[in-house]
Amino acid sequence: MKRLIVNADGFGFTFGNNRAILEVLEHGFIRSVSVNVTFEAVKEVPVLARDFPHVSIGIHLNLSNGPSLLPPGEIPSLIGAGGLFHGDDFPRMATRGNLNRDEMKREIRAQIRRLRDYGVAVTHWESHKGRHLYPGFFEAAMETTKQEGIPATRTHEFHLVLPRGWRPLRVLAYYVQHPRFAVTHSLAAHRMRILRRAGFQMPDRRLVMDAMGPDACCRPECWQLMLETMLDGLNVIECHPGYVDDELRKYAKLLEQRERERDLFADPHWAQRARDAGVAPVSYHALLNGEAAQGR
């Protein structure tokens, strides 16, 4: 059986993101959402949970962008100029071991509990830009989410969506052209093996469209190809629909793409196209319950 979780990232990041995600959820193709709790727009989470009870809701852990949840004085190593997270400096600081792991665990726990304070049953966890794959953050996130009883996570075992042809040659060509990804994808897969041994559930593979071009995630023909070439099992892919507002301009570089993705998923026929291709759109509930989630 071919099943697909399409997860909309970044609910709570901005009110424009919230508006777009709520709109695209109406059509039934996107059935999972991850919530960033460190921004003001998180207060609309009750609307999400009330209007879309079939949608799985996860925590979008954030230790790198914008304001923290805890007071900066309680997590000083995580905070940079202006009392905000370190932003683009986070990877360098994490790699050098400059971030205190106990402070990371406290902030992660506060974020999880903030989401639960809204009455949300948190089904899964991941992080802003996949930053949890960095040293320190990974261990802190694994330990804290385990203690908090979050059962599932997004996998980072990547499966490239590619043009039709002899797949092994196309995969090889992609990694020869992008040697950095050959290293990072291998390291990410190793991290996933650690999480599986720790008892976390996750989809079989994460689909990525990078090999189809920088704007592949916004192009309907790429999504159609993904559906038609999907492997059996439980697959996951993320999307970022949004309306660009001042808050998004302040904290994000991904702007035009969010509006293009919003327009893409405004098309109400994607769920039917998936079914026509033999793919069942599901949520993380399908993973946790061992069965495909049913439509509304």
Structural class: alpha/beta
How many distinct folded domains? 1
Order of helices and strands: EHEHEHHEHEEHHEHEHHHEH
CATH class: Alpha Beta
Q: How many extended strands?
A: 9
CATH topology: TIM Barrel
CATH architecture: Alpha-Beta Barrel
- Strand proportion, as a percent range, falls in 15-25%
Report the biggest beta sheet as strand number plus sense, adding barrel if it closes. 9 strands, parallel
Distance between the termini: 20 Å
Number of helices in the DSSP assignment: 12
User: Which spans have pLDDT < 50 for at least 5 consecutive residues?
Assistant: 292-296
Mean pLDDT: 95
Helix percentage: 40-55%
Radius of gyration (CA) equals 18 Å
Features of this protein?
296 residues; alpha/beta; TIM Barrel; 12 helices
Report on the architecture of this protein.
The chain has helices spanning 15-25, 45-51, 90-95, 101-117, 137-147, 167-177, 179-197, 220-228, 246-251, 256-265, 270-276, 284-289; strands at 2-11, 32-35, 56-61, 122-127, 152-153, 158-160, 205-208, 233-239, 279-282. It has 296 residues and is α/β, with parallel strands linked by helices. It is built from 12 helices and 9 strands. The chain has one domain: Glycoside hydrolase/deacetylase (TIM Barrel). Residues 292-296 have low confidence and may be disordered. Strands 1, 2, 3, 4, 5, 6, 7, 8 and 9 form a 9-stranded parallel beta sheet that branches. Helices cover 41% and strands 16% of the residues.
List the helices and strands and how they pair.
Blueprint: E1 2-11, H1 15-25, E2 32-35, H2 45-51, E3 56-61, H3 90-95, H4 101-117, E4 122-127, H5 137-147, E5 152-153, E6 158-160, H6 167-177, H7 179-197, E7 205-208, H8 220-228, E8 233-239, H9 246-251, H10 256-265, H11 270-276, E9 279-282, H12 284-289
Parallel strand pairs: 1-2, 1-8, 1-9, 2-3, 3-4, 4-5, 6-7, 7-8
Helix pairs in contact: 1-10, 4-5, 6-7
